[in-house]
Design goal:
It is built from 16 helices and eight strands.
Length: 336
């Protein structure tokens, strides 16, 4: 049965980002929005199936709704990995067809799969057969010399026929030769109009757009234009409060706005538990550096955390000291 909670949450999602959207990051983001759909970093199917790296599936129950993104190109192996993800409790399994890194190219998955829609369809079909949760796809509009106007409709037709009901389209080509993964996030031009046309061609397919969205206002405009969902990446990581604190009200029409200060307070017991289990403070606080971006005291907040979180014995009191950099300036501003 379709997971309606994940489908509804996909109206706004935080993109899967390697080295960033780990379980600590997702816990923080969930404190800022109770509704948005969160994604793991990409986990490769071979790592789970052949490597037995099931710790990569660890997540906190508070993260739901949360989706597992898989990388791979072997239908049977992806089906096994999807089954492990579903057993671990993920609300959705997503297939990565958009990452342009050298590592995924050598493994013949990620954006390379835009060249082989038949294989993607086979992967989706096997994954769908293996799990009861939704199987979704994240893709580009094309790669290298491909004409997106031609290849994207065929790609979508194949995955829809295989049983995929939700697709997130990064509205840029990926250049597999000549551009680095970082350059592939910025240099290829955005083509939102093409994604809008795909919605017209596939009216029953949930289409989320990704790429270049840097504000909640822009997300609202894209939804108003007729898209089903918006996925935000770097802006949600670097300015999480700006993107997520008003999301429940403005995107989902529910709840009240969150605050960065409340999120910090709620992170303290989480940090304490992480340290008790043998973790280090910076593993959590590195994801919190942008919480007060654009606000008075943001520089002091970042400085205290950056300089102190890696020191032996650093704990929640350092986070409280960093927060004081913000609250002191806020109190001064009110007094003035």
């Amino acid at each position: 049965m379709p997971n309606n909670a994940a489908a509804a949450a996909a109206k706004l999602s935080v993109a899967p980002m390697m080295d960033w959207t780990d379980r600590h990051c997702r816990y923080l983001h969930r404190l800022l929005s109770g509704q948005a759909l969160l994604y793991t970093e990409m986990v490769t199917a071979p790592a789970l199936v052949r490597g037995g790296a099931l710790h990569l599936l660890d997540h906190d129950p508070a993260e739901h709704p949360v989706a597992l993104q898989l990388g791979g190109s072997d239908p049977q192996e992806l089906a096994q990995a999807a089954r492990l993800g579903a057993q671990a409790g993920y609300d959705e399994i997503n297939l990565n067809c958009g990452c342009p890194s050298d590592r995924v190219q050598s493994g013949t998955f990620g954006a390379v799969l835009m060249r082989d829609p038949a294989r993607v369809a086979a992967c989706v079909a096997e994954m769908r057969h293996a799990v009861d949760v939704p199987v979704t796809v994240k893709c580009r509009i094309g790669v290298d010399e491909q004409d997106p106007e031609e290849v994207l409709p065929e790609f979508l037709s194949r995955v829809v026929a295989a049983g995929c009901e939700r697709v997130t389209i990064h509205a840029r080509k990926a250049w597999l030769k000549g551009l680095s993964p970082k350059e592939n996030r910025d240099i290829p031009p955005l083509d939102y109009d093409l994604v809008m046309r795909m919605k017209g061609l596939f009216p029953n397919l949930h289409i989320s757009i990704n790429g270049g969205v840097d504000s909640i206002d822009q997300a609202v405009d894209l939804l108003d234009a007729g898209l089903d969902g918006v996925m935000i990446g770097r802006a949600a990581y670097h300015q999480p409060a700006d993107i997520l604190c008003t999301a429940d009200r403005r995107i989902f029409g529910t709840g009240r706005d969150a605050t960065a200060e409340d999120a910090v307070a709620a992170m303290l017991p989480y940090i304490e538990a992480h340290l008790t289990e043998g973790g280090r403070l910076h593993q959590v606080t590195r994801h919190m550096l942008g919480l007060f971006a654009g606000r008075p005291g943001a520089r002091g907040w970042r400085r205290v955390l950056s300089e102190g979180a890696t020191r032996p014995g650093a704990g929640p009191e350092l986070v409280e000291a960093a927060l004081a950099q913000v609250t002191a300036l806020a109190s001064t501003a009110k007094a003035v």
